[in-house]
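hiii, so i know i said id send this last week but things got crazy w the move. better late than never?? heres the sequnce for the chain we talked about at the cafe, plus the structure i predicted for it. fair warning i was half asleep when i ran it
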Amino acid sequence: MNAVFRKTFWFFLAFIMLVPLCVQTAADVDHLSLTGFLRSFDAKSGIVRIDVTSEGCKGLREFKEPGGANGSMDQSLVGKQIHFSIDSSVCERGKVYNILAR
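okay and structure toks below
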């Protein structure tokens, strides 16, 4: 009886310790880092058009700059190369992703 209790106790302890790790891993979202040339910026809506040169996301795409006119992006960056991260691990044509960092 004592051996069965010990096995059950260690199994339960291992389960309690591993579950939070599995839940955390499932909740993690990778951020895609991209490079491209800023083509236009609408300060009101916060929408930027970037000609992305990174593999897997090439082409002219639209992204949302959080904060719009209050964000860190402005018209002086149009035509310049920028490096940025988006809130997704993929980049699908037609979707507008949020820019997380530049």
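btw The mean pLDDT is 80. thought thatd interest u
miss u guys!!
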